[in-house]
Write a structure and sequence with these properties.
Length: 191
């Protein structure tokens, strides 16, 4: 391709420059799927776009489901872009509007995967989902023991937790589940 380097960036640009775009979008419940190829230049993810395909993620699916759907669309798009290059089809270069851009750094589960119980309950639930399998899980401590949480259900209930002091309190253990108070309700977590 005339000596140019092409990057496959699986997130909308210029909004999600940087690494970890899928996890950031999962956290934000931003279900815009994107396969995007751009020319590499001296600035991170700011080169001209040569191809993109849009699709949607199901907001209620797991991060692993999102990864699998992203990979599926990536495979189809890689075949298409390579075919276009091989056949010397004209590829329109589209400049990015970098005034609208934002940069999101890579996420490291070992460092960034700790739950903050001052967040809203639905945010904690989404956070647990974002760090779920294939990652190591969201983390917190119970009696000075680090635990890893791979899934949760958020049950909205404004009457059960009216004071922030209660956030993070385990109020029930029953049938292999832990019930954890959070802002706006509680989390049901499998032990």
């Amino acid at each position: 391709f005339k000596g140019k380097i092409i990057n496959s960036h699986g997130a909308p640009l210029p909004e999600y420059k940087g690494g970890g775009g899928l996890t950031w979008r999962y956290l934000n419940a931003d279900n815009r799927g994107r396969v995007l190829f751009h020319i590499v230049n001296e600035k991170i993810d700011q080169g001209e776009i040569i191809f993109q395909r849009k699709f949607r993620f199901n907001i209620n699916k797991s991060i692993l489901d999102w990864i699998n759907l992203q990979n599926y669309h990536e495979k189809l798009a890689i075949i298409k872009i390579l075919d276009m290059i091989y056949k010397n089809r004209i590829i329109q270069l589209k400049k990015q509007n970098n005034l609208l851009g934002s940069y999101f750094p890579r996420i490291n589960s070992a460092i960034n995967g700790y739950i903050n119980f001052s967040w809203k309950g639905n945010e904690i639930h989404r956070f647990i989902g974002a760090f779920s399998y294939p990652y190591e899980g969201a983390k917190t401590f119970i009696n000075n023991h680090k635990i890893y949480i791979l899934n949760s259900n958020f049950i909205k209930n404004k009457n059960i937790n009216k004071h922030s002091f209660l956030n993070g309190l385990i109020f029930e253990k029953k049938n292999n589940y832990i019930y954890w108070l959070v802002n706006g309700g509680y989390l049901k977590i499998k032990e």
